[in-house]
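Workshop exercise sheet. Pairs work together: one partner reads the sequence aloud, the other fills in the structure field after running the prediction. Swap roles for the next sheet.
Pair: D.N. / O.F.
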Amino acid sequence: MFAPTPDRFATRDQLLSMSGLAFVEAILDGELPPPPIAKLLNYHLTEVGSGRVVFAGTPMVDHCNPMGTVHGGWYGTLLDSCMACAVMTGVPQGSFYTTLEYKVNLVRGIPLGTEIMAEGRVQHSGRSTGVAEGWIRGAVDGKLYATGSTTCLIMAG
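Structure field:
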């Protein structure tokens, strides 16, 4: 079984000692490690603000389905990451979130090697839930590739 190590994840104490916004900013600034899945799927955090998060990424051959196109899970993971992290920016110190559900709409296929931006924006941030929307666009041309929505559960630590 995989055991988290301090160099791969923030500790629970680190997570609960700061607001959600400060936590996501610490990942952006390199003070806390990014999630390991970001390396595996070739994306990284580029912008963080209150209620808004942006990731940049580029799908590669390793992210393809058997038909040779970008797997829908790649789109879903990028959208889940940007939307849920946007919700995290509104989570108070001592709390954290988990995704309850998310929906993805693929608009068109992303050509391999195309850099994209995945942006998440909060629509509602409450005591127990957060709702956000997101989209994936081409970094150069702004072409829309996918949209999404999420509901996250906010929990006290």
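Discussion prompt: Helices lie at 12-16, 20-28, 36-40, 72-88. What would you look at next?
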